[in-house]
Amino acid sequence: MTARGVVRVPGDKSISHRALILGSLATGVSRINGILESADVQSTASVLRNLGATIPDLSPNLLLRGRGKRSLTPSVAPLYAGNSGTTVRLMAGVVSAHEFVSRFEGDASLSRRPMQRIAEPLTAMGARFEFARGDGLPMTIHGGALSGVVWNTRAASAQTKSAILLAGLVSGVHVSVRESQKSRDHTERMLISMGARVETDESGVTLSPVESLTALDLDVPGDPSSAAYLVALGVLRRAGFVILPSVCVNPTRTGFMQKLVSMGAYIVFEDSGYVAGDTAATVIAHPSKLADTTVEASEIPAMIDELPLLGCVAAAAGVTLEVRGAGELRSKESDRIAALVSNLNSVGARAEELPDGFRILRGSRTLSGLVRTHADHRIAMAFGILGALPGNSIAIDDKRCVDISYPGFWTDLERLSR
User: Fold this and answer.
1) Residues 12, 185, 223, 305: which is the catalytic one?
2) In this model, does residue 1 exceed pLDDT 60?
3) pLDDT recorded at residue 365
4) Model confidence pLDDT, tens digit, residues 156-176
5) Where does 101-199 have alpha helices with state H?
C-alpha cells in the first residue's frame, strides 16, 4: 500500500494562544516556532498588543519579549476578539488581576456565547463584571487585587480553568480548580515548563504563587483537532494512507482518534517526543472498516471539537452512532448539534437531533447537496471530508470560515484527495 500523502498540519491553536499570553507575561525573550497564524490566534495577538505587550507580526519563527507578570497597561480601545472565545476567556483572567478596566467585544457569533462561566470564579476572586446584555459580549471587567480561590467548575472547561490559573498567576495567589472530568491541560503543562509551581491530579490543579516565569523555547506541535479531519480522510479512503508528522497527542486532546481506534480504525502513533510539557507524535491513518459505537458523557471533553466530524465519519462509513452529554455543542460558533443533523439529512444521510447530542443511523453512503456552515469552521471542514470521498458531491456555502483554525485546509485536502 502506498502513502496517499504527507501533511504537516498547522500549529496547535490551544498551545498557540497560550504561548502568546504566557510568553508576554514571562521575563525574557521567548522563541516560538510554528505558531498557528489563524484568525483566532491573530485575535489574541491583537488584544495583547492593545494591552501594551510587544507582539511582533505572527510568523513561523517568532521572538517575543516578555516584560513580566504585571506588565500590561490599559487599552484605550475595546479589546476586539473577533470569533475567538479562547481569547476572551483566557485574557479575562489576565486583565482581572490588573488594576484597570477592560472592555471585550467580538463578532456577532462570539457575542452570543456565554461568559458567566468565567465571570463567576473571577468575581469570587475580587474582579467586577458588567454585561451589556445577558452574559455575552460586550463585557467590561474591573480588575484589581485578587484573592485566592478553590473553585469547582462543575462541568469540564479548560477555558474556565485557564482563566482562574492566569488570574492566580498574575495576582500571585494560590488557586485550585476542581473538575468533574479532566479537561484540556495545556495551560498547566506550559506553566510547569516555565517554572511555575503546579500540582495536578485527575480531579484538578493547584497553582502556588510564583515570582516570575522563564521564557519559552517552543516548537508548536500540529493541532490534533486539525489533524482529525485528515485522519478521518485516511480512515475512510479505500486505498493509501495519510501521514501527519509532529501532531500534539496530549491525552486530553486525542479522544476522537482513540474513539476511531475503538471502532476498528487502524491508526498508528510513532516517534513520540515532548514540547513544553506536551507530547507530539507522527500519526499514520490507514483505510479501515468501522463498527457502530456510542459516545458517553465522560468521553466528551477529549473530543468536543471533533464530534461533528465523528458524525460525518459515521454517515460516510454506514454505521450507527449515538452521542449524549454534549449539550455544550449548542453554544459553539454555531449550534453544532442542529447544524450537523440538518446538513446530514439535507445531503442524504439519516440523522436525529437529541437535546444534548445526536444519533446517526445507517443510510445512503452516497451523499450530495449543499451544506450551510453557519460560518462555523468545524462544520465546514467536517463536510469537506465527506465531499472529498469518491462518489459524493457536496458543496460548502462558506469555505473561507476555516481560516479561523486551519487556513490551508482546502489546499491540503485537495492534495490528499488526488
Assistant:
1) 305
2) no
3) 80
4) 899 999 999 999 999 999 999
5) 108-111, 116-125, 158-171, 186-193
Are 166 and 196 spatial neighbours (Cβ–Cβ below 8 Å)? no
| Chain segment 331-354, per-residue pLDDT in tens | 999 999 999 999 999 999 999 999
Question: Hey, how many other C-beta atoms are within 10 angstroms of the C-beta on 56?
Answer: 11
| pLDDT over threshold 90, residue 239 | no
pLDDT for residue 353: 98
CA distance 180 to 178: 7
Q: How confident is the model at residue 4 (pLDDT cuts 50, 70, 90)?
A: low
* Residue 305 is among the residues annotated as catalytic for this protein: yes
Query: Does residue 2 carry a pLDDT above 50?
Result: no
Give the total residue count for the chain. Answer: 418
Strand partners of residue 396: 371
pLDDT in tens, 28-57: 999 999 999 999 999 999 999 999 999 999
Q: What is the pTM of this model?
A: 0.93
- Provide DSSP, 250-307: -TTT-HHHHHHHHTT-EEEEEEEEEETTEEEEEEEEE------EEE-GGGGGGGGGGH
What does DSSP assign to residue 197?
A: -
Residue 335: φ, ψ to 5° = -75, 95
